[in-house]
Design goal:
Layout: H1 2-27, H2 34-52, H3 58-72, H4 75-87, H5 91-119
Length: 121
Amino acid sequence: MNWLLVAVGGMVGAPLRYLTDRAVRSRRDTVFPWGTFAVNVVGCLVLGTLTGAASVGPDLRLLLGTGLCGALTTYSTFSYETLRLAETGAGLYAVANVAGSLLAGLGAAFGGVWIGQTFWS
């Protein structure tokens, strides 16, 4: 049964990542990978919230944490896009992507833990 929860979460997370990236790209004409940045930060917020929420059961953690966030967030695309930025001469954007992703992701995770502890503990 656990695998089904992960699969259902993944079936929502993967298209959500794709659609979010497309929506962001259609609104921002830049070389910076805002779509990937956005889904990764949102995923950090969701996982942080699940981590901080003591009342969240294991089934919801599998569905949202492992399934949804596992498919929504993407380290491989982040790495690829950062490499492409560096290779095409956009080194400052590459550094900004790494630093911004790290800072925003950790900030979102810590913020999510606070949200989870405040509202669901």
